[in-house]
Amino acid sequence: MSRVLRREISGTIGLLTDEHDFRAMQHYRSFPFDDYATYLAGVEDLLKARASQGMHTMLALFDPEEYADFCADMGLDPDSPSSRARFTTETATTGPTIPYDGEPLADLVPALINEAVRKATREYASTLLARLGPCAACGKDVGHEAFARARDSLVRILDTADPGHRHLVCSVSATPETLVSVLHADTDPDGATHLDDTEALEFTTVLTLGLAALPGALVMRTRSPGAPDRVYGWRLRAGDLEPLTAGEVFDAYCTDIDSGDPISPESDVDYCAPPDLSPDGPTPGHHH
Fold it and tell me: pLDDT for 60-91, tens place per residue?
C-alpha cells in the first residue's frame, strides 16, 4: 500500500541552473555537492527513478539570493536541508516550474530558464501597467483599456496572416532594459490557429505596455509550404500599430545593429508591408 500511495504524491525539485548559483550554495556546509556536473547527474538520476515508479515531478528554479531572503524573512537557518525544502515548496507555488516528462536534463535547464524569463517579463510589464492608473481625461483604467486593444490587435494580426507557421516578436523600450516577448502561432490543415496560452498572455501584456505607454515594435515572420517567407511589422506609437514600409523592414533585417553595415538579405524571404488591420467596427481600447 505504501508503494501504491507513493505514486499518488507529486514532488518538486529546486534546480540550480548554472554554476554561479551552484557555487553560491556551496557556502552552506549542509549542501552535499562539490561538482556541478555531478550535481546535475544526481538530479537526473533522481528524476528518472521517480518517473520509473510512476511519480510526477516538477522542476522549480532555485535562486540562492531569493533563498537567503526567504530564510531571513521566515527566521530559518539557511544552512539546513529542511529550509531548502520549504523554499522549494514556496517557489513551486509562486515561481516558474516545468514538469519532468522524461526529457534530458540538458533540455530542461534552458526550458526552465526561459519560463523564468517569461514570467519575470510578464510580471514586470504588469507592474508598469498598473502604475499608469486612470486616464486624466475620462477616468478609465489606461492599462485595462490598452489590454483590450492589444488583444484585439493580436487577433487581427493572426487573422490576416498567411496560414502556416507564424513567429511574432514584440519589443518595448522599458527601463532598465528592453522587454522582449515571442509568440509562436501555427495553423492546422483546417485553418485553426494554435497558441500556447501562457506565451500568448505574456506577449499580449508586453504589447499592451507598448500601446499604452512606451515605444516599441512588433515584427512577424510567416512561413508557408511552397512560398517565400514573409517578414513585416509595425511600430508601437501613441496607442496605435503604425505599419512599417517594406523598405524599413528590409533595413531593419539587413543592417548590422552594431556597425551599421549592410547585411546580405536572406534568400527566399520577402520583406514587405503588413496587411491592413482596419477593423469592420470601432476599435476597442483607449484612444485619448
Answer: 999 999 999 999 999 999 999 999 999 999 99
Q: Which residues contact 102 (CB under 8 A, 6 or more apart)?
A: 48, 51
- Which of 269, 280, 177 shows the shortest CA–CA distance to 220? 269
User: pTM of this prediction?
Assistant: 0.75
Nearest residue to 128 via CA among 138, 136, 120: 120
The pLDDT, as a whole number, for residue 282 is: 42
SS3 content of the chain, % helix, strand, coil (to 5): 45, 20, 35
The string of DSSP codes covering 131-157 is HH-B-TTT--BHHHHHHHHHHHHHHHH
Using alpha carbons only, what angle is made at residue 59 by residues 196 and 16, rounded to the nearest 5 degrees? 120
Q: What distance lies between CA 34 and its chain's CA centroid?
A: 32
Residue-level pLDDT at 280: 56
User: CB–CB of 206/181 below 8 Å?
Assistant: yes
- The number of angstroms, rounded, from the C-alpha of 228 to the middle of its chain's C-alpha atoms is 28
Query: In the prediction, which pLDDT does 42 show?
Result: 94
